[in-house]
Amino acid sequence: MVDENDFEIPAKYDVNAKWDACIDLGLRRFVYSSFAGGFAGLFFFRSPVTRWASVAFGAGVGIGSAYSDCSHKFNTSRANLTPKVSDAPPPKAEEE
Fold it and tell me: Rounded distance, CA 75 to CA 96, Å?
């Protein structure tokens, strides 16, 4: 008889591990890209407003890249807005 404690979930279906990895990835990328944006703001801009804007931009880039990677981990894909080359109709040759 199989004990309930010995049952292991395959890594493909372990949602808790995926969420842990995504939260960890999101926090790391948020912090690191915010620091990068802050450093770039100190280096390139004089106004405090533009410096904070570069921090916010860096944080947005970090959150966006983490979201993209986590969506791939959960096997969800975005809508494909560009047609595949094989789906596109062939160009019509105009005779002159």
Answer: 50
